[in-house]
Amino acid sequence: MFYQLRIATEEDVPAINAFLEKGQAKGGVTLAERTAFVVMEDADGQLAGCLGLEQLNEQEGLLRSLVISDKLGQGHIVSLFQSVQTLGEKMGVDTFYVVANHSSSHDFLALMGFTPLKEIPESIWSSAHAKETLGKEQAVVLQKKGS
Q1: In order along the chain (147 residues), what is the average pLDDT of each group of 10 residues?
Q2: Which of 2, 21, 48, 80 has its CA 20 to 30 A from that of 64?
Q3: Using CA atoms, how far apart are residues 1 and 94, in angstroms rounded to an integer?
Q4: What is the pTM of this model?
C-alpha cells in the first residue's frame, strides 16, 4: 500500500480530530500558530497516521497526538517521526520532547533517539496537552536533541 506524508492544513482538522478520537486520543486539535501536524494518507486520501508538533518556545517542541492505523508498519511510523522532526528543525526547534504514558512505546522512542528525563523541563508546563498527559499514571517525558 502506498502512503503519502504531508503537512496538515486547516481543512484537515475535522478529519484529524475524528481520527484521534477513533484512536482513543484526545481530539479538539487546532492548527494554532505554534502547532503543526504531519498526516499520512493512503492512496484513497484516507488518514492512516498523524503526529503533531507543538512549539513550546524558539528551540523546543513537543511531539503530540500520535495516532496510527493498524495498517501501518514500523517503517511508516519512523517516516512520520522523521518528517515531524524535519518540520520542527525548519521552525528552529532543536530539542524535541514527548510525553509517553505507555511503557510499550518507550522501546520505540529509544530507537528513535529519545531518552527519558528525570526532571520535567519548565517549558513542558506551557503545554495544556502535556499537562493533561502528565497527569496520567506512568507518564514519562523523553527528550531528543536535533541533528
Answers
A1: 89 86 64 83 91 94 89 90 94 94 82 93 91 84 86
A2: 2
A3: 33
A4: 0.89
